[in-house]
Design brief:
Layout: H1 30-37, E1 48-54, E2 57-65, E3 71-76, E4 85-86, E5 88-89, E6 95-102, E7 110-116, E8 122-125, E9 141-142, H2 154-164, E10 184-188, H3 190-193, H4 210-224, E11 228-231, E12 235-236, E13 249-253, H5 260-272, E14 276-281, E15 285-287, H6 307-310, E16 311-312, E17 317-319, H7 325-341, E18 346-349, H8 352-356, H9 378-394, E19 399-402, E20 424-426, H10 428-438, H11 449-453, E21 464-468, H12 480-483, H13 488-504, E22 508-512, H14 537-554, E23 569-576, E24 581-587, E25 593-599, E26 605-612, E27 617-623, E28 640-641, E29 643-646, E30 652-660, E31 664-670
Parallel strand pairs: 10-11, 10-22, 11-14, 14-18, 18-19, 19-20, 20-21, 21-22
Antiparallel strand pairs: 1-2, 2-6, 3-4, 3-7, 5-6, 7-8, 7-9, 12-13, 15-17, 16-17, 23-24, 24-25, 25-31, 26-30, 27-28, 27-31, 29-30
Helix pairs in contact: 1-7, 4-5, 7-9, 13-14
Amino acid sequence: MKELENLNVREVTEESVRPIGAGLPETDELPAYLFHQGTNYKSYDYMGAHCEKTADGYVYTFRVWAPNATFITLNADFTDWQNGLPFRRITKNGIWEVVVESDVSLDGQFYKFAVTGKDGVTWLKSDPYAFSSETLLKTASILCDDTSHTWNDAEWMKKRSATVCPKQRGFKPKVNHFYSAPLNIYEVHLGSWRTLDGKSTEDGEHYLNYRDIADKLAPYVSDMGYTHVELLPVMEHPYDGSWGYQVCGYYAPTSRYGTPEDFKYFVEKMHEYSIGVILDWVPAHFPKDRHGLYEFDGQPLYEYQGRDRMENEGWGTRYFDVGRPEIQSFLVSNALFWLREYHADGLRIDAVAAMLYLDYEKRPGEWVPNYKGTNHNLEAIAFFQKLNTAVFAEFPDALMIAEESTDWPMITKPVWEGGIGFNFKWNMGFANDLFDYVQTDPVARKHVHNKLTFPLMYAFTENYILPVSHDEVVHGKKSLVDKMFGEYDDKFAGMRTFLMYMMTLPGKKLTFMGTEFAQFREWDYENELEWFMTQYPRHTEMQRFVRELNRFYLATPELWEIDDTWDGFEWIEPNMADLNVISYRRKDKKGHEIVIVLNFAPVVRENFKVRVPKMGRYEEIMTTDKYEFGGKNRVNEEAVRTRAVIRDDGKRENEIEITLPALGGVILRKQTNS
């Protein structure tokens, strides 16, 4: 710990270390009462460390919740690290407080709480509510005198509100109002998107600052046609290899990349480029690091008490006891903290299934049913409903996205209808089915054709995001381009067709960084993306294709205005299994439509017949097969006129003939007034 020089901390007296209220062991302050009730949704304004500037200097108030502790001291740069200043318990349910008066600012100084449990053992703990923290092998909390910021993103916030919650004349919000706008997310791990001089981050020395990353990332994602970035957890975590999913400092943006003010700059820079910021958030579990939340006051506190619920042995982490009121205050406040204080535009909630199921990754005999006799975690259901109700009450234009990997019903239905209350859910089944399909030899794809079409069977049961996420490009699963069956060029052609299918299906979109230029190597958190690959033609061509496909998606309301019902989608030919071909229509609210035809076979189909909805001339408005995309340029340069055909049942249909490229796709639109 660093030493302070010339610091005049006043002698600790009964006045400087004192209880709140009338000296009773139970405070009469409303924030403490609400905290213990589970309804203090600004608990970070009360708990933790707070500074007040006075005429005589600075007053620092520290509060911590530790009901099972017998003694707590504040150990810091400005106290005796060995013994510290003693706290006093101020509520019977376990809030402790100490007040320090100083002639000089303590901003930036390190501190911890020495918590002694009932067993007499003392552990140095980081402040659960700290706004800043050391990182990696260093674990002290850091005082922040000024956490305010003058935001300059009012234009973006106004646009966000108008996009997510449109106000129209005579408009009455639907029971489950849907996001009728494009949503195309670029998922990012800040430590490996770019690094200093392209070096490994294994030693922690080559991270870029939040500001440097923002200055590079914002124009890039804007140019590439993405609407949002989604960041793997930026909350403070001690271990790089957890990718941020083992959080110890829930209220502190990791100092790997800079200060809290630097991270606010990052968010503001994204907003300047009209890019939304979604944060990955982990309310399910926390690691067993001794300085963190683990057995905080000498025994289980933030975690469940019972062994059947306490731990995920596979992950080596503890589950939050979300049925406990103080944990609800901690977590709901934390979600709102990132939306309020950092202007995040939404949260992607990790591991929802792990919270909802009592038997998640457990063997028979390792879990206990609820009082109804089922495997549902009733406290977790109530917690999510409470969380989403609180978030949308304050931020109706926020995005609350569940990573939920099962078929649990009504994840994205409103709480007042009995739903869990999120407005989006990751469609994990879509990803698994499509990956299975594209890894299959085209000769055998007719036997797994249902993998291609099955996602439409449930596409409108929830409000879905279609993800090609970080989880799908690690641990031997291969990068997206390497998942494709075939030789080198076939892989690129197959990937372009996969992406055209994904971008034209109902559902919002998410792709992990590096996918856009077809990185072959699996993602490695210790090294930056293989940007040098863009020096090679196929990778530059893929990046060019993704940019044009993204921009096409943004400019085409047929692909995003009606994502939540069959009104926006209609199959033309879903069952051409022998040919590895599918075709379908996408429609917008004004009745405009486009036709998509995809060929997953390595065979060019000349004079291929496609049924179309209306008479007229149809032109090709997008293809996967242009030279500049790395294709063979099998394009339909001229608009084609429909012809009438009579089916066997006597009904008349409209038909056109097109060239359908091998492992390729085309998008067609009827010419106006044709």
